[in-house]
Amino acid sequence: MNIVRVDNYEEMSKASARYIIDKVKANRKMTLGLATGSTPKGTYQYIIEDHKQKGTSYQQISTFNLDEYIGLSAKDPNSYHFYMKDVLFNHIDLPLNHTHIPNGDVLDKEEECVRYEAKVKESSIDLQILGIGANGHIGFNEPGTSFQSETHVVALAESTREANARFFPSIDDVPTHAITMGIASIMASKEILLLVSGEAKSEALERLLSDQLPSEDFPASILKTHPRVTIIADNEALMATG
Ligand code: F6R
Q1: 211 catalytically annotated
Q2: What is the ipTM of this complex?
């Protein structure tokens, strides 16, 4: 794993946007894997700024998001469909029919998982952007998830619901389940870019960078076995690591 240390969230956002933009320029038809949450918001802002100022085009790019809550419609401001339009898709020239996000608002969730996994496999992700949970989750793959897992329905850990409650009126409004790409689906990406910012993630990052063997108790640890992982982390995230 290649580690890039930066000063703060702003620098992490700039460096990761630059990393993604350079890849897009080198391969105009690439497939990008996208994450939601707080961490990549600044990255998306810099991608938008570059698109507006320098005209980097996303017309032939395709995207796949990691996950979506179950039970929220695409119009719900807390859905990841809404988030992606709000923070990225509405502001660049990426055709909406090139974007893919699991549909958490369908009757047959299992069928949706099979459909989504097939799409991911067919396209094959060139660069997957990831954030990390304080408990080591990637996507919504909580501790204990099989490293062989493909797109599946998950019950969210209480700690994950609490961490995400800040976006909802109350914790009771946070969905209990989600659809997520599995660990095997993530690991099939040709390259992975993990973004880590802030003290709240420092223990998780320390554990990831330690010499502990990969273990399903700590999902992100599988990344150690991927041949092309870059981590862009800020000083606070690296504080426990030294
Ligand atoms: C988001 C996702 C999650 C987040 C993680 C960190 O699509 O799959 O794994 O990356 O929960 O979230 P933030 O960035 O909000 O700390």
Answers
A1: no
A2: 0.99
Positions of the chain with pLDDT under 70: 242
pLDDT at 56: 98
Would you state the pLDDT for residue 157? 87
Distance 67 CA to ligand 1 centre (A): 10
Please give the residue range of the domain that contains residue 18: 2-234
Tell whether 239 is covered by a domain: no
67 is catalytic: yes
Number of domains in the chain: 1
Amino acid at 183: I
Instruction: Determine contact, residues 190/16, Cβ cutoff 8 Å.
Output: no
- pLDDT at position 167 is 86
Is 152 marked active-site? no
Q: Is 36's C-beta closer than 6 angstroms to any atom of ligand 1?
A: yes
- Within a domain: 240: no
CATH number of the domain bearing residue 162: 3.40.50.1360
Single-letter residue type at 146: S
Question: Which residues partner with 137 through β-bridges?
Answer: none
Q: How far apart are CA 196 and CA 204, in angstroms?
A: 10
State which of 16, 32, 36, 223 you would mutate to test the pocket of ligand 1, scoring each by most atoms of that ligand within 8 A of its C-beta. 36
